[in-house]
Amino acid sequence: MPSRLPRRFLALIVVLVVAVVGVVVAVAVQGSGSSTGAAAERRLTLDVPAAPGSADTVTLDATMYTPATTPAPAVLLAHGFGGSKDSVSAQARQLAADGFVVLAWSARGFGASTGQIGVNAPDAEVADGRALVDYLATQPEVQLDGPGDPRVGVAGASYGGALALSLAGTDPRIDADVAAITWNDLGQALLPDLAAAAPVDATTPAAGATGSDGVLKRSWAGIFFASGASAAGVCGRFTQQVCAGYLDASQSGRPSAALLALLRANSPTSTNAGVRAPTLLLQGEQDTLFGLDQADANARQIAAAGAPVTVSWFAGGHDAGGTNPDADAQVEAFLRFHLLGQGTDPGTGFRYEVAGSVSSRGQVRTRSVQAAAYPGLDGSATRTRTVQLDGASRPVLRPPGASPSAISTIPGLGSALGALASSGLGGLANLDIPGQVATFSTAPLTERFTVTGSPRVAITITDLTGGGEAVLFAKLYDVAADGTKTLPGGGVSAFRVTGLTAATPTTVEVTLPGIVRPVEAGHTLQLAVSTTDQAYAVPLTPAAFTLGLARDGLVLPVVDGTAATSSTVPLAPLLGIGALVLVVAGLALGLRLRRRGSDEVDPALVDTPLVVRGLAKSYADGFRAVDGVDLEVLHGQVLGLLGPNGAGKTTTLRMLMGLISPTEGEIRVFGHRISAGSPVLSRLGSFVEGSGFLPHLTGTANLELYWAATGRPHEDAHLEEALAIAGLGSAVERKVRSYSQGMRQRLAIAQAMLGLPDLLVLDEPTNGLDPPQIRAMRGVLRDYAATGRTVLVSSHLLSEVEQTCSHVVVMHKGKVVAAGTVADIVSADGRVVLRVSDPDRAVEVLRALDGVGEVSLAEPGDGSPSGAVQADLADVPAAEAVRVLVGAGFAVSAVAPRNRLEDVFLALVDNDTTGSGTRDE
């Protein structure tokens, strides 16, 4: 049996799952471009019936945005789950500037609206939408198509997208409908069962099987429930019906018939037959919550009802920060044409984005492909190609307690982990447990093609332990020639199969997650079927099965089209919570790499914050980034680590943090030798790779979330002390999206200070700050060191290091070329500037002093004080020179080194960075 995954790693995954509530609640239809004029804004409170026939009312908090020219068409703008009308305020202002009346509101149970969350219940949230249309029909600013009938569109993403579809399906007054990254059947989305006894009628590219005994998508379902919780009790703000259904499923791992009926009734699948308005369906290709199969089902149902449907798959989704600028532009163009009659008819075509490589500037290159129609909606069928898999059967087991469990992705972070894998950290995005997974591979492919939609495969299952039931997870890897595996989209197909026997294999047709993936010639495709997955509810009883292939073929959808555009998507939004992703990466590396020796302790160094001895790091190509570094950092010091690009600074810091291992030498923190995952690293706080704050959360919430990810007790965070040192004041209760760059940097320092670490390591903490902010940061670092702790700062700003740090280490070409106090280094050659009462006569006195070299008046304009003498004292102590001058009747008001740190630094590195490489900045 493989060893159990470390508890800290599993705990971190749980915390990260909760963390990405922000990804869910923040998504909304984004505006593009800049506003052309300010819109008038009016806050409204609208009372709607709490339930049909009820005398009680629910108050909806809303804001209406009015353009400069009225009457005008209106847009109802719905927010994502956990958000409010404020979540879409920027988008509302943009649409108003484009000429629309916009009504944004907080749904029941969110923001300042009262009532309970019914998850888009037909007689609650959807009925509220119809009441809002009624209200718009009474407003003089809104253009009417007839009495009581405003010209109106509805748009939303995720939770808001489903509401938009359900409203369009129940109110014929809706003239345009936009739904992004949303569901078709919430029961099938949160409790999927993607296997069927017979082949799926897959004329469309991402049609999936829809079973009735699904597997709870525990991580994503928990995120939804947690974001609707409150201190009012277990059910929080949810209706009793929704809460009871979730609680039952969370314990059993499978849905009740009542829960499936409720979720289906609250889903567009129940209302799509009534949609008559032109509809734009935007779905993300990086979305483990609502996959491409959900948009596929919506498209089929709406088209069958006779409404025009435009389908667009884009390089985004719940795992990639929501929508992207290209998708946003499509929304704006769609609404302009169908409500304002402006622009080009978007038609009923199909567009998808193909993500490529990551550029050196951190952008994902994409190209858009345009097809005339979404296959299957126009009488055609999706073209497929079949590749052969090796067919030998494999035994698999499910361990007691389903632990350890495989890791396919982490909700909200799928694209981030995939980006890490694509950049050379293959395997961090997934972890299959030997013995629990059966794999079937193709031969190397002979030509390049793009998989566009949901692959299908038929497998056989034999029960070896007599339980009669299997819960399994299937996924498709793209395996490069060097063995690097990528899980496109991060998706997994969960399915439950009952009625199994040991005598006769049971055959099921499995629909794999919908993807858009260019597969290169020479790559192989690998089908993996596992008994466990961390993101799902897995039975805890042990079981064993034999898995095989009912047919050797893997059926892959291919959609032909013409290139539409080529663009880049910034990687930073895809990473979303970059700092936490790096924590995951570091822990995953710790799982895969053996430690270099034990956590041995040198008793003589337990009170020394940092000792580095003979440290070296070489790479396979012979590049030696760090070459024999020795340094020591003591309590209360602020040490500046200086050096030109390629000097080895960042490589040294990464080795200090246990992210990479040294080739030679050692690093000891409080006597403990550092290796990946060393416990003593809990005494180190760092800000090296960027903060990655969640913009929709407050500063305090970001810090609390980060601390929770460490798995340490809340009381150990010392949150108040860290915030006091950072000096953010009441701004910590504001959302980070409103922060200036300086405030974000200060919050990042506070994050590094959580737990009041004994050693604080910061890489370029003043980047992007203006002079007043830099001065404030200088005080923050000095104050922290004044508590008796130690600060290590890597920086390019030499003047700031000189004013902030007590000690300096200068590196060049991987070596330490100078180390000591700032004062000692800048005065090492004995050159000083003295401010005296009679400079001309003082020059003569100093020249007569034995051992003194060149003496002259300070040149005007060179930065020296007025009335100053500069002298090379060589081996004569400065105190002796002052004594002689005072004895001769001079008033000496100041003595300072002649050099600045910049002068010394340039002299040490000879202004020469050639040959130093560019690996380390």
TrEMBL record:
Domain of life: Bacteria
Residues of the ABC transporter domain: 610-838
Protein keywords: ATP-binding, Hydrolase, Nucleotide-binding, Transport
Keyword match Transmembrane helix: no
Record carries keyword Repeat: no
Cited InterPro entries: AAA+_ATPase, AB_hydrolase_fold, ABC_transporter-like_ATP-bd, ABC_transporter-like_CS, Galactose-bd-like_sf, P-loop_NTPase, Xaa-Pro-like_dom, Xaa-Pro_dipept_C
GO molecular function ontology, one term from the record: hydrolase activity
Family annotation (SMART domains): AAA, PepX_C
Pfam families noted in UniProt: ABC_tran (PF00005), Peptidase_S15 (PF02129), PepX_C (PF08530)
Gene3D superfamilies the UniProt entry points to: alpha/beta hydrolase, Galactose-binding domain-like, P-loop containing nucleotide triphosphate hydrolases
Stated family: Belongs to the ABC transporter superfamily.
UniProt name for this protein: Alpha/beta fold hydrolase
Organism: Rhodococcus antarcticus
